[in-house]
Specification:
The chain is of the alpha+beta class and about 600 residues long. Among the domains are: about 120 residues, no CATH class; about 180 residues, Nucleotidyltransferase, domain 5, CATH 3.30.420; about 100 residues, no CATH class. It is about 35% helix and about 15% strand. The strands form six sheets. The chain has a five-stranded mixed sheet with strand order 11-10-9-12-13, sandwiched between helices. A four-stranded antiparallel sheet has the order 3-6-5-4. Helix 9 links the parallel strand 12 and strand 13. Helix 10 packs antiparallel against helix 11 and helix 15 packs across helix 16. The protein starts with 15 loop residues before the first strand and ends in a 7-residue tail after the last strand. About 15% of the residues have low confidence.
Length: about 600
């Protein structure tokens, strides 16, 4: 059976009407559809575009979404072959005065039937439309409908008071409500005079209420949890959409906007750095799964001079290879991206991994180690030694050993000098301040007596033998010579702590959801990298001459406003999102977004 079509070939959102059974009225329709012809009218239809607005008895209800199809008045005749203007529905108020009907009760009953049909619908809204396409038949409300427009919490009883009384005959009206999440719509109908009024609390784009979408965006873009926001709203009975709707919003609207914004900002940073020549970067990996085996790991590359995150690569484990292969894969992807963007890396500061040194030597990149990573590994061994029976006096030296490694790195000009200063620590702990190495013959501190003579280790003691074995290990001395002299990684460690706010490890997320949360953390960190300084009491002051320390001011959220603005840009949603790839390049499927 062929589908029903309008006799004039109209397409789109239309309502088809068959020819009436009244012979006189059917003759008028035949003269309009087939002028000068005499033929049958079976299986012939005329669409709603060839009738005037006064020909319909539920035009306002249909435009507001309370009716599935248009209904013709009795005796209506098509008047023109040109399609009329697109139907419009208002996010505010639509009203119509008393129609010219002989029986107002008949019209009231028809409207109630249409209205209750809409209320009985399980979805509560019209049939689903593709959310990625702009609906040309949806009304664009006048005035502001973006995120900057003020919004309020209104009780339902206060809203019903606005529609209880008819403004024409001052009679009590029938008020019907339909709701979807925070979206609510009311239809006011007067049984006496037939006055109708449709009202919506939010503008609608396609089949998505804008207010519901902005609530999901506010939770997602600020790094919050929709589950916590949903729990808070339920505590005060504030109507909100469910988790499935939030996931659909994230998949269709929010994640494409985050991906577009990050790629735009990233290309702007690359264009600025091209004029600076060779770059000095720091890189490190962070695991993002609960438990001892990480399913996802991210590798971050940060520009040390500007303290900005240049790239974040998310690697999904392939089930083999472990952390080392995931870190190598993340670094390879990041360096390939910088190379394709015509950026040259001269120095790279990472943690203590020899497999990275081999890869960087092939790319002709100088590899340095971070003092923080080397300190952390060494202190674990020293703390274990201090808990033994022979190493009780070692605990007082742990902070001094940590500070000495940092001082040896930043006060040296090359690797051999750093090693000489580090080896002098063993003599210093025996109260011997002259050394055999010509690169560092004496200690830099002033020579003075100590009141606590028991803190010095006795030459030949068992604890000194174990301590010397740890501090003068050949592998450790080789790594101490590769410590960075000019740059360190406190900013990178701060970014890794920020990742726990935007993507906690106790929350299971798919690849795209976690990647977009990494992008949000990077945008937040980059925006706050060059904040002005202010003084704040209650913290330890790094400068002893100042009583009030210098700390950063409160962070800003300009990127959130830009992301909210991108929700109304159709070009953003045409971009393809990245898919999950394992450390060996295998493409994996994607699941639902995290909450």
């Amino acid at each position: 059976m062929s589908p029903k079509k309008c006799v004039f070939g109209c397409e789109g959102k239309i309502t088809l009407f068959s020819f009436p059974k009244n012979p006189a009225l059917r003759a008028q329709w035949m003269r309009f559809a087939f002028p000068g012809q005499n033929r049958g009218c079976a299986s012939v239809f005329v669409c709603s575009r060839h009738f005037s607005d006064q020909s319909f008895m539920n035009k306002a209800q249909f435009d507001a979404g309370f009716a599935d199809r248009l209904r013709l008045r009795e005796g209506a005749v098509p008047t023109g072959t040109e399609p009329p203007h697109e139907p419009s529905s208002s996010a505010g108020v639509q009203c119509r005065s008393t129609p010219a009907l002989k029986n107002a009760a008949t019209q009231t009953g028809a409207l109630c039937v249409e209205m209750w049909r809409r209320v009985a619908n399980t979805s509560g809204l019209a049939a689903k439309r593709p959310r990625m396409e702009e609906d040309t038949h949806t009304h664009r409300p006048s005035g502001r409908s973006d995120h900057t427009e003020p919004k309020y919490v209104v009780f339902e009883s206060r809203l019903r008071e606005l529609f209880q009384t008819c403004p024409l005959c001052v009679c009590e009206c029938v008020v019907q409500r339909r709701r979807r999440g925070a979206f609510v719509a009311f239809l006011q109908l007067c049984r006496r005079c037939g006055y109708t009024k449709a009202w919506q609390s939010q503008p609608v784009r396609g089949s998505t209420p804008i207010g519901n979408l902005q609530m999901s965006a506010a939770a997602y873009f600020t790094g919050g949890s929709f589950a916590q926001m949903h729990k808070m709203c339920r505590a005060m009975n504030l109507q909100i959409h469910g988790l499935d709707t939030f996931r659909r919003h994230a998949r269709v609207f929010l994640e494409p906007a985050v991906h577009h914004k990050w790629k735009t900002d990233q290309q702007a940073m690359f264009q600025t750095l091209r004029a600076q020549g060779e770059l000095t970067l720091s890189g490190d990996m962070c695991a993002h799964s609960p438990g001892r085996s990480a399913k996802y790991s991210s590798y971050t590359l940060m520009h040390l001079e500007s303290r900005r995150v240049l790239d974040v690569q998310l690697v999904q484990s392939s089930g083999g290879g472990g952390r080392a292969h995931m870190e190598r894969e993340g670094l390879r992807r990041g360096l390939d991206l910088l190379k394709s963007s015509q950026l040259q890396v001269e120095h790279l500061l990472t943690d203590r991994h020899t497999h990275l040194t081999e890869d960087l030597s092939q790319r002709r990149v100088k590899h340095y180690y971070s003092v923080w990573h080397l300190q952390r590994e060494l202190l674990k061994k020293l703390e274990k030694l201090s808990r033994s029976r022979d190493g009780q006096g070692l605990r007082k030296w742990l902070l001094s050993i940590k500070n000495h490694m940092f001082w040896a790195a930043v006060s040296s000009q090359d690797g051999p000098e750093t090693v000489a200063k580090w080896k002098s620590l063993v003599n210093h702990m025996q109260n011997m301040h002259t050394h055999d190495d010509p690169l560092f013959p004496t200690c830099a501190h002033p020579l003075r007596g100590s009141r606590y003579s028991r803190k010095w280790f006795k030459p030949g003691s068992r604890v000194l033998y174990k301590l010397e074995k740890l501090l003068l290990n050949q592998r450790l001395l080789r790594d101490v010579g590769k410590l960075s002299h000019q740059h360190q990684t406190p900013a990178l460690q701060a970014f890794h702590r920020l990742l726990l706010r935007f993507g906690p490890n106790d929350r299971m997320c798919p690849f795209t959801g976690r990647l977009c949360r990494l992008y949000l953390a990077a945008m937040h960190f980059n925006e706050s990298a060059e904040r002005p300084l202010a003084c704040e009491e209650g913290l330890m002051c790094p400068d002893p001459e100042r009583r009030r320390p210098t700390v950063n001011t409160q962070p800003t959220f300009g990127y959130v406003c830009e992301l909210m603005r991108l929700l109304g840009d159709p070009a953003v949603f045409a971009e393809e999102l990245p898919v999950a790839q394992t450390s060996v390049g295998e493409v994996r499927g994607q699941s639902q977004t995290c909450d």
